[in-house]
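Worked problem 6 (solution included).
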Amino acid sequence: MTSNSRVARALALLLAPFVLVQPLVAQQNQAAPAETAPATPPVPAPQALQGEGEVPWLYRGSDVPVDDKWLFGEMKNGLRYAVRRNGVPPRQISIRVRIDAGSLHETDSEQGFAHLLEHLLFRESKYLGQAEAIAAWQRLGATFGSDTNAETSPTHTVYKLDIPDINDAKLSESFKLLSGMIREPVLNDANVAAERPIVLAEKRERGGAGQRMADLTRRTFFAGQRLATRNPIGIDETLKAAEGKGVKAFYQRWYRPENTVIVVAGDADPVLLAGLVEQWFGDWKGAGKPGVAPDFGDPVPPAGATDDAGAPAPIGELAIGVEPDLPRSLTYAVMRPWRPVQDTIVYNEGLLLDAVAQAIINRRLESRARGGGSFLYAQVQQDDISRSTDATFVTFAPLTNDWQAALADVRSVIADALANPPTQEEIDREVAEFDVVFANEVEQESVQSGSNLANNLVNAVDIRETVAAPKVVLDVFRGMKPRLTPQEVLEHTRSLFEGVVTRSVYVTPTAGEADAAALRLALAREAKADGSARLAAQSISFDELPRVGAPGTIASQQPLGVLEIEQVDFANGVKALVWANDAEPGRVTVRVRFGAGYRAFDKDNAAYAPIGEAALVGSGLGELGQNEIDRLATGRKLGFDFSIDDAVFTFTAQTRSEDVADQLYLFAAKLGMPRWDPDPVIRAKAAAELAYNTYSTSPGGVLNRDLEYLVTGGEDRFATPDPAALEQVTPEGFRKVWEPLLKQGPIEVLVFGEFDQPAIIEQLRKTFGALPPRDPIPADIAARVPAFAATAERPAIATHRGDANQAAAVVAWPSGGGVASLRESRQLEILTQLFNNRLLEALRERAGASYSPQVFSKWPEDLPSGGRITAVAQLEPEFVPVFFAEADRIAKDLAANPPTADELARVTEPLAQLIRRASTGNQFWLFNLEGATGDPQRVALLRTLLADYSQTSPQVMQFLADRYFAKGSPFRLAVLPEGQKLAEAPATGAANAQAGRADLIGR
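Solution. The predicted structure is:
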């Protein structure tokens, strides 16, 4: 009850401004009189719910306790469903429709049809005309891409819908529209022709070196199985040949009630939800002959190989992939046939033993990598892949071209795990880690979102297993602790590396560095067990650690003026916002803001910014290195995320009520007594060197590497360091740059969640309050703001070394920054979403030129300027001028003509619902109040946040468009394949782009 009242108070805070602004908004919008909503027909009582004494369909053959918060139903037509009440976030319903068919169910001539069909169901259906689905869901308050989405995997297709602010009418309408999509899509040649270029654009954007290596890996590991040749995205030949008749035939074979599971979780009576499922899907009948699921096949050993019990799995298919811009990586897998299991408690105990065994090996491998090993990282992971294989994968990245030495090092650690049992101390350490995770899930059960619950059940159906309540998982784990012995863990370790065949792929940038024969010989060579990577398992107590300093003095403590948040100021200048609440049981978020952020860097030290993001935390604190910090965290939930923002550095952690005091010590100690271990710096430098060339493999990679640098007119602090710059990086240089930065600038600490507030304020006094006074940020650094690229007649050109049919384009307009104009920035977000909808319509729906063009706004609140609005799309090189023309046309039109009321509503309603949902969690309030100790305006502006994002007028949008789009020149960037030039701008825009698209496809 307390949690709900706190949510109500928070929502009241956001809703209050509507009373003040509503009359003005009403005058501005001059909206048409509201129509009377049609009466919602009554929902019939469900008839197919499974009752007491009946084993729910998901749990047949299992002794796992049924999660009785779910209600299960099985209808006469074969459709199965599961529904439950869930109020996180309030007034939302999450619906999932799973079809038991994916790319593995396609014939050779149908490759890509399962995914194409996913698109076509959004194209046109019984209750939705052509390309109306996105707008329809937006009018219901759903955000396209996050609230309305779908996925196609090798084994299933899932349609996902999250509807906020639900009521009876919206529930009924949602089920109606969804039933029309699933049961009666319009599958004809015209719709296939319209959707084909969008799918091909999606396929093109996924292409390049990474996709080539993914395809090679799939063909190698799953040789002889359907999975080897069934990528859900399909192949060009079958997609270009697709017609309405063929796609409809695939639909009729697989889209049938007996192949369908519907899952609904949300803030409504589950019996009502069951009734809606039955009302809209109960009379569904499949058309035509049902499909028969094909045999997915098994991994098989090479001809003549023996499979003697206990013998190593024979080595099968091997492949060497050469990609000049990809770093080295080697994966080998011990493969076994996948078989359905009885999802029993004993089976799950075995999975947990497997997980502990893997965790022990992975911790040893990580220790070896941290200590200067021959590989950057290495990991062992067992996985069941697409109901095709049960395999144990070993993946690592050699640091040099001596991949054989790295392979031998990795295998030596695994060989030791196979030959010798772990110590009980090692087991206990991993058990403590698992226990804290499972216990935390019990604590968090009441705030599990409906969307996650629905997704979990869908995934359980896919792998043919059950779902269990968090308490059941914890009880099973704690009940099996007598089995967690060195001998049992050893036996499970050995079983993980037993199989019918071993396969491997090595990716290298250098031709001739390896061949299949050398790889086979290296894998066949006996591995020598090396136990030197075993870790000391004794824990370290926080009580043994030195104090940060003499406890500080509280200078003032007073309410912030919003909710029950307290501001605590210490004599040393540290300021804290503390909010104890029980909205998220057992969970606490801690954030520490300090220093100058990107303002602290220039051309002389810029390379140390990304190295710092990777290595600063790992370089330790006090007498503790990274391994010691790991031991310190045993049995606790502690975090240590570090990021660099425009004008501030940030530590962030999600922790538990009982661990928040220790979390505060870690963060304060990092600032007050940092350690400077060289190994994390060397490792981060090596990772950056290995990764640098990968940016060139695609236009998206080039944008990630260069956009910030180019749009700021070449500011060195935003450049991704190249190998020459990285060559100058040293551990000594790292300390020289970062040591003064940790001492510089004000500190703000935010602690939001469930905790004992007086105790945490006292811990703040002993930790952050004990730090020495901070050095000021030098004036020249404090004054730095990002520049904006100079006006140019032609677009800037960057090149990539990926596929010749891949390109990207960017248009960016300068905007502003700072808290003083924060309300304007929120209105600008509405304008940005209007632009996004129009660009999506032009480039995706009309032209088929780009799969997911995006428009977004960046407004740095901690700086007085430096913001921008950016439009970006990946497309074919020939369509880059079309993108520039369309972006320019949309910008000018928004500045010249106000948007329609419906167009505005399709943006403001999803934004309003997004805020209402987010405001039920602590993260929302923390994000919007960070910085408030230094700028009290943020508190006052919080009260208008919902109104600012969801109340506007066409005239305001036109005014902002004129200010930001019509008054200045944008920055334009084209990312083209090496050797290609930018085509001339077209005489016409996207209206004729489809004709050009047809020519491109026909080549």
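Discussion: The chain is about 40% helix and 15% strand.
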